[in-house]
Amino acid sequence: MELKRTHKCGKISSDNLNEEIVISGWVQKRRNHGGLIFIDIRDRSGILQVVFDPEQKEIFELAKDLRAEYVVSVKGKVKKRPEGNINSEMDTGKFEIEVEELEILDEADTPPFQVKDHVDVSEDLRLKYRYMDLRRPFMKEIMKLRHQAMKKTRDYLVKKDFWEIETPILTKSTPEGARDYLVPSRVKAGNFFALPQSPQLFKQLLMMSGMERYFQIARCFRDEDLRANRQPEFTQIDLEMSFVEKEDIFKIVEGLVEEVFEIVDIKVPENIERMSYYEAMEKYGSDKPDLRFDMKLKDISDIVKDSDFNIFSSTVNDGGQVKGITVKNGADFSRSQIDNYTDYVKQFGAKGLAWISLKKNEIKSPIAKFLADKEIEDIKNKMEAEAGDLMLFVADSKKVVADSLGNLRVKLAEDLDLIPENEYKFVWVVDFPLFEYDEKEKRFAPQHHPFTAPLDEDIELIESDPAKVRSDAYDLVLNGEELGGGSIRIHDTEIQQKVFNALEMAEEEAEEKFGFLLEAYKYGTPPHGGIAFGFDRMMQIMSGADSIRDVIAFPKTQSATSPLTDAPSAVSKEQLAELKIKLDT
Q1: Which is higher by pLDDT, 271 or 392?
Q2: Which of 240, 320, 401, 438 could make a disulfide contact with 315, Cβ separation 3.0–4.6 Å?
Q3: Gap between the Cα atoms of 178 and 196, Å rounded
Q4: 116/29 Cα distance (integer angstroms)
């Protein structure tokens, strides 16, 4: 390389006028005008136009061969563009380089798609040629944002006296929730490591080790069933603190989020609103409520429990509930629209969608004839419905009602354009249930993990009424997305044993899964707690990207494969033999 770069394309300003410089980068575009050749050259910092004059015959002839994505260096003087040639959409649109020397560093085949934003190309093709996709300005800005957010995170937490400590990637399988990715051991045939779903157990061990304040920007792995916006490997901001209560963690986290979101000028409230899990489920049908719009769920079970509409009354009397949402000015919905929303809620287990349309001078509804006038009037009052509104109802178990109406609420808001742009509503959701009942296993399972502490006032309920025990757990939610979740951990072995008993986890099972952690409990455990943030989800919200795959340099597809590297792929018989593995195929 003869020409050594002296300046970056996007950093040229009036300070560089008449200065002789060298820039290096990729050919973005070539144009021939009035005998001159104009080339836009792109590097990470931006784009700069260079001009080839035909009087410099040798260089001009060489410039004729330049094509998109050739890698070049050019030397020349920085000049102002003529008035009619200024590009106000480019940061460097007032300047250009009059080329004196050109060096072609590498040629390029015709790209599979144009390197520009808003290119009309399939995601599979973009992922197959991800190194090309990452050259686009939007993608480069996202990678820059990730870097800035990571640096802000590190700087903030170090100032708050945290130590960054790495935890193992090859660890023990403790299958709780999602499936582990397993790694066979060559030196201990028939045994397996697991890739960590989170650093949870190790960060608790670090608290037992006296580290007091730990953080890590951690890689995590979960072999989950296919979901549109999940990744099998992802990044989280992970932290843990000793000798703290929930409020201490909230204070640290709110400061961190304020620092990180400041990068994109999103203001975080000084004191983020708190909402109990119970309130979130009652009003929004979701433990990650979107507070940017209203349309709360209303419970009409007490009004219809003795109704002649059997679907309502029998559901309530069998232990279920009837809830609804009011669609303001929705009385003119067509029957086909209502049918479409009925099909939508069926995805979440609902058997149907009852409705009452309040026309200006009449009530239109297939269920109105089964309801007394007073029942209808009471329903209207409870639903805060007026003439011109539409009321939609689901009658089922509490879970089905919440899932159905919670998702329908968001769907309607999207369809009716009720969600304001550039508005950010943060909320802490607190006091989650400690346990959830597993119908398949016919026993209680941990809502989060078995080391989550119960609220002090609910400890006595662990043995007598596990379903009513609330945990000292918390999620930070933004615009209907969970940014992060955590809890105060159990540090008392007696309480830990009560939790294991409620989970019907035998001593042998607990020892097999968590023996090393339980052993550590014996040697003095401080009160501690922490939280983990889904870093990729945070980046998606901050960047405005459509997909979580857009904010990861080399993501997997929705089916957990890599079009770029063709992973996962077969391995040789020799590799399998070394691992003492035989394939049953």
Answers
A1: 392
A2: 320
A3: 11
A4: 11
Q: What is the mean pLDDT of residues 111-120?
A: 92
What pLDDT sits at residue 460? 93
- 131: buried, middle or exposed (CB in 10 Å: 19+, 13-18, 0-12)? exposed
Q: Which residues pair with 395 in a beta bridge?
A: 322
- On the question of pLDDT at 99 being above 70, the answer is yes
Alpha helices (runs of H) in 91-173, residue ranges in sequence order:
123-128, 130-133, 137-159
Report the C-alpha gap between 480 and 290 in whole angstroms. 4
Distances (CA, A) of 343 to 285, 332, 336, 403, 415: 18, 19, 10, 14, 15
Give the start-to-end residue ranges of the domains of the chain: 9-106, 139-269+426-551, 293-415
| Residues in a beta bridge with 46 | 43
Q: What is the mean pLDDT of the segment spanning 15-33?
A: 95
Average pLDDT over residues 159-172: 97
CATH architecture of 293-415: 2-Layer Sandwich (3.30)
Question: Is residue 61 over pLDDT 70?
Answer: yes
For residues 259 and 5, give the distance between their C-alpha atoms in angstroms, rounded to a whole number.
35
User: Per-residue pLDDT for 175 more than 70?
Assistant: no
Model confidence at 176: pLDDT above 80: no
Spatial distance between the Cα atoms of 1 and 297, rounded to a whole number of angstroms: 67
Query: How is domain 9-106 classified at the CATH fold level?
Result: OB fold (Dihydrolipoamide Acetyltransferase, E2P) (2.40.50)
The CATH number of the structural domain formed by 139-269+426-551 is 3.30.930.10
Specify burial of residue 312 (Cβ count, 10 A radius: 0-12, 13-18, 19+).
buried
Backbone angles phi, psi at 512, to 5 degrees: -65, -40
- Peptide bond just before 568 cis, omega within 30 deg: yes
Residue 240 CB neighbours (<10 A)? 29
The predicted structure's pLDDT at residue 53? 93
d(CA 379, CA 549): 44
C-alpha span between 431 and 235 (Å, rounded):
26
pLDDT at 1: 63
3-class state of residue 435 by DSSP? strand
Query: When comparing pLDDT for 556 and 508, which is higher?
Result: 556
Please compute the mean of the pLDDT values over residues 505-517 and round it to a whole number: 84
SS (H, E, C) 10-50: HHCCHHHCCCEEEEEEEEEEEEEECCEEEEEEEECCEEEEE
Q: Nearest 5°: CA angle at 410, between 405 and 414?
A: 140
